[in-house]
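User: what does the whole thing look like in 3D?
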Amino acid sequence: MDKKDIRSLSVEDLRAFFLEKGFEAFRGNQVYEWLWKKSIKDIDQMTNISKSIRDALKSEFVINNIEIESVQKSTDGTVKNAIKLHDGLTVESVLIPTKTRMTACISSQVGCSLNCRFCATARLKRMRNLNPDEIYDQVVTINSQCLEFHDKPLTNIVFMGMGEPLMNYNNVLKAIEKITSPTGLGMSPKRIVVSTSGVPKMIKKMADDKVKFKLAVSLHSAIEETRTSIMPFNEKFTLTELRNSLIYWYENTKNRITYEYVVWEGINDKIEDINALVEFCKFAPSKVNLIQYNSIDDPDFVQANNSAIKLYMDILEKNNITVTFRRSRGKDIDAACGQLANKSQ
Ligand code: SAH
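Assistant: Here's the predicted 3D structure for the full assembly of 345 residues, as structure tokens:
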């Protein structure tokens, strides 16, 4: 029989396990600290736990570690990791260093079930959700790389790697709880961004759960037909529903929303596209992050020229909407947004 991953147990579960086996309950707290705060990879590394207790643990549990399969470094300092999971599947996680920040871009699923036509990950079908520990371990891995390569700790986390985080909501939430807990990494939730293609029901759920992290929505078009043509699931989760969920999010969290937006030639580079975005931004306090398109070799998608980007920026600014233009990082190693597709395999 496969042994259970010990990290699927809560601290209460561990305490109960020890009591049942005739040990002191506080051993559960010690083991929990080894597993999360100290991120050990082997039960025998728990040096303040006696051998008999470790043996009791080993007879029932394993630690399913992730492994770095390969590391690629970009000329701009971006580092892309192929991460091997215990069942042999692979995801990618990226470290993006800037002068002021060390950002981890992490994955929430192996592949993705949504089929955004411009995204490389969409070409991999969704294999499975990541467990909370697999999400957490990516952060631990990137944090070690920050220290090793830059002598600085990780400062920010974005769920912009592979997968749709809101389609794996419970595990993402559990991972974030551990990342932000003093018994885990103790990071501030304000430094975590969950990026979603926009699943209205789950955005409402996040608002009800009063989550403290930030929300980014991959909008790309504020016109129903256009958005459906590039993000086909928009036919089911319509813009109207998305809008309503975002209003609900703001009312309940008072947290402003970031819209991620790529401008493509002939798709969303016209004045009516810009006007629709301006109107959409008025529903709830928000800002727009225009992102550079990273080609995935599909002739239908071509980054719009600078004058289109400038027009977007001018009109948004005239309407008092904060807008930034984000240049891609790590393009030379296929580590940029939408390029994560396990190419190295
Ligand atoms: N599923 C989530 C998170 C992963 S994608 C989401 O959709 O938000 C992270 C960001 O990269 C999203 O804003 C996505 O729209 C964008 N993206 C996807 N493919 C891209 C590409 N080829 N070039 C630039 N950005 C892309």
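In plain terms: The mean pLDDT is 94. The chain has ten helices and 14 strands.
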